[in-house]
Amino acid sequence: MKHFDCPIIGRRPAQEFICSGGMIAIVQMTDQDAAREALFFGDATARVKREWWYHKPSRLWFLFQRDTATDVVHSIELATRVSTDDGV
């Protein structure tokens, strides 16, 4: 059974997590068609990526840095809310 060593909630079985996909920096994309394609289809290139993962029992979101070619997790951090200029 595969486990993730999380610095926040400890060693947890992979079955407790759901991968929600890679992080996309749309603000860096000037071509709207390219941004839309990245949003819906993602980037299938095998490499180290930052991904959103949800832990079902704790209801916490995490950011994983994971090598999609080898499935090795390099880091896990708690996803935090980012404030914006309008206070949201």
Query: What is the CA-atom radius of gyration, in angstroms?
Result: 15 Å
Overall body shape: globular
Strand order of the largest sheet: 3-4-5-6
- How far from one another are the termini? 40 Å
The residue ranges in which pLDDT falls below 50 over 5 or more consecutive positions are none
Mean pLDDT: 81
Please report the total strand number as a whole number: 6
Tell me the number of helical segments per DSSP (H or I, 4 or more residues long): 1
Helix content: 10-25%
Structural class, from secondary structure content?
A: mainly beta
Task: Outline the structure in words.
The structure is a single chain. The longest helix is centred in the middle third of the chain and has 10 residues, at 32-41. Helix content is 11%, strand content 42%. The mean pLDDT is 81. It is globular and about 40 Å long. The chain starts with a strand and ends in a 10-residue tail after the last strand. The chain has 88 residues and is mainly beta. Strands 3-4-5-6 form a four-stranded antiparallel beta sheet, with no helix packed on it. It has a two-stranded antiparallel ribbon with strand order 1-2. The protein has a domain at 1-24 and 48-81. 7% of the residues are buried. It has one helix at residues 32-41, and strands at residues 3-6, 10-13, 17-22, 48-55, 60-67, 72-78. The protein is built from one helix and six strands; from the N terminus they run βββαβββ.
Question: What's the arrangement of secondary structure elements?
Answer:
Elements: E1 3-6, E2 10-13, E3 17-22, H1 32-41, E4 48-55, E5 60-67, E6 72-78
Antiparallel strand pairs: 1-2, 3-4, 4-5, 5-6
